[in-house]
Amino acid sequence: MRLFAWLAPGAGPPDPRGYFSQQEAGRGALWGAFWGAGRGCRKGGFSRRDFKAGFQGGAGVVAGAGNYRCGQGLAAERIKARHMAIERTLSIIKPDATRRNLTGKINAKFEEAGLRIVAQKRIFLSLAQAQKFYEVHKDRPFFGELTEFMASEPVVVQVLEGEGAIAKNREVMGATNPANADDGTIRKEFALSVGENSVHGSDAPETAAEEIAYFFSGLELVG
Ligand code: ADP
Ligand code: MG
Fold first, then answer.
1. How far is the CA of 141 from the centre of ligand 2 (A)?
2. What is the tens place of the pLDDT at every residue in 177-193?
3. pTM for the complete prediction?
4. Quick one: which ligand is closest to 146's CA?
5. In 124-207, at which residue ranges do the beta strands (DSSP E only) sit?
6. Predicted confidence (pLDDT) per residue in 26-65, tens digit
7. Phi/psi at 101 (nearest 5 deg)?
8. Pocket lining for ligand 1, CB < 6 angstroms
């Protein structure tokens, strides 16, 4: 029964890329061999049609093998894409850094790490805007100090894009407290203190999406 089911013509539409599936190829080869052998027997020799049927069967096998390889390639690409997703994250160059004219040096760090600055603007946050942005920290003892600092001088808000951009940006930034930051990170090189630590970066895909939408409209994200 299984063999008959396998031999039956496939119900689904042909592959949109024009490939035979392995099953189709196998079926073609088997039918080609049957048909060719039967005709050969009755007529005492292979006709041109028999040859064609056999040939199509053979071609089916080759196409099947090709399709199998192609399928493997596509699967590998899908796995690769899943592991190296292009992400966007929100970054802020904080007042301590804009005051010291460090925007270009900090941007160079992002670009050296493979992050693209796909949107950027210099703005002066009001206290209310800073409080709304850092709402998640409203019960922390440093909330007043943090929001007043963020509203004290201009900041540069930007969208960074790249493979694993959210985690990569956190790596490039370094630990919150510059005393604990690794060598070569932005905070190690430029931060003044745990509060005045030069940069902000989103910490997860959900917060990245929310924070980007807080500062940028879709029209400002041109890629
Ligand atoms: P990060 O910016 O590394 O994600 P947090 O989200 O924990 O760090 O904190 C937000 C910001 O609040 C920090 O970047 C820093 O400016 C400030 N901050 C955090 N901890 C302190 C602290 N102990 N004292 C003063 N400011 C702090
Ligand atoms: Mg944070």
1. 15
2. 999 999 999 999 999 99
3. 0.69
4. 1
5. 155-163, 199-201
6. 554 555 444 444 444 344 455 555 556 555 655 555 554 5
7. 60, 45
8. 137, 142, 145-146, 176, 194-195, 197, 200, 203
